Amino acid sequence: MSKPQIAIVDYQMGNLRSVQKALEHVGFVAEITSDPARVEAADKVILPGVGAFGDAIAELHRRELVSPIQQAISAGKPFLGICLGLQMLFDVGFEGGEHVGMGVLPGRVEKFGTIENRKVPHMGWNQVSIAHADCPLLKDIPATAHFYFVHSYYVVPENASDVWLTCDYGQEFCAAVWRENLFATQFHPEKSQRDGLQLLKNFAEL
Predict the structure, then answer these.
(1) Domain range holding 83?
(2) How many structural domains is the chain composed of?
(3) Which residue in 77, 82, 141, 191 could disulfide with 148, CB within 3.0 to 4.6 Å?
């Protein structure tokens, strides 16, 4: 049986090759593409991202990639957002002004305030707490897993049921969301060594 076709969305803002190499390491082929038709045709879609919310969402619109992403999610295809790829799923982000997101999940993206004895951005390894232990992407990942974060903004979902993982950085914040076929993490699984690779493997095997 041929392996599923995985599209990594290319909008010039993300560690695309790092995600692709991580998937290759666990035995899966993924295509980096900015072609809306290729994204729409894929069996699974990954939306990475590093950078500013407003610039990123504008670039997705410019490349006509928003609709294929929304359609893939609504069609029930496995979807994984990473970092900025998580944040843009929400209604609105407040990085450098107010910017409308993709509106796939209700909620907003806010900046960390002043946190005592903590630097912003939140950068480095941190442990997550599990809100939904039955998530299939947690297969063979310990409950005490640490993942690698780099961010100054965090998502605030309207629906508590969408929160999959949380993390503490002087305040508790949503570290990942899960709703049916949609998964998205604030941390970078491609930079998170064994547990991050296992998470990507679990996604690819869905």
Answers:
(1) 6-93+105-204
(2) 1
(3) 191
Q: Which pTM does this prediction carry?
A: 0.96
Beta bridge partners of 183: 80, 178
Model confidence pLDDT, tens digit, residues 76-109: 999 999 999 999 999 999 998 999 999 999 999 9
Environment class of residue 171 by beta-carbon count within 10 Å: exposed (0-12), middle (13-18) or buried (19+)? exposed
Residues facing 149 on adjacent strands: 124
Reported as a pLDDT band with limits 50, 70 and 90, residue 3 is very low
Active site residues: 83, 188, 190
Q: Which of 72, 59, 102, 89 is nearest to 174 (CA)?
A: 89
Q: Where are the alpha helices (DSSP H) in 26-65?
A: 36-41, 53-62
How many angstroms separate the most distant Cα atoms in the chain?
Answer: 53
> Could you give the residue ranges of the DSSP H alpha helices within the chain?
16-25, 36-41, 53-62, 66-74, 84-87, 193-204
Q: What is the CATH number of the domain that holds 171?
A: 3.40.50.880
Is residue 89 a part of any domain in this protein?
A: yes
